[in-house]
Amino acid sequence: MPDSNSNKKVLLVDDDEFLLNMYAIKLKNSGYTPEVVTSGVAAIEKLRNGGDYDAIVFDIVMPAMTGFEMIEAIKKEKMATRAALIALTNQGQQADIERGKKLGIDGYIVKASSVPSEVVNEINTILEAKGNK
């Protein structure tokens, strides 16, 4: 695998630890440096403590704080300004996709219609489009 992804840090945010671990392994095998947290609250804390990421890949439906609420907080506090914000969710309804666009996220991937390798490819494509090569 080429080194184009080396040193690229991806924060994975999902309350499903099985999926978190699976995507973390896929990203690591593709040259990324993944970090995982199981809630939007934990993601916000990582960012407040200086976490710097090329991409934040997040689920929408999580306890305590939804992915959309997390993105609103990140934007309000002007954190992770260079990170690609990518929803990775089973919420494929048009209303959710539109809400994501309004929040300025960079990508929207529906878990149910993507295998992990396709998710990694989509993350690559989104990062390239954003200029985080």
From TrEMBL:
The keyword Phosphoprotein is annotated on this UniProt entry: yes
Keyword Coiled coil: no
Record keywords: Phosphoprotein, Two-component regulatory system
Pfam families: Response_reg
InterPro entries per the UniProt record, alphabetical: Bact_response_regulator, CheY-like_superfamily, Sig_transdc_resp-reg_receiver
GO biological process, alphabetically ordered: phosphorelay signal transduction system
Response regulatory domain sequence ranges: 9-126
Residues carrying 4-aspartylphosphate: 59
Protein name: Response regulatory domain-containing protein
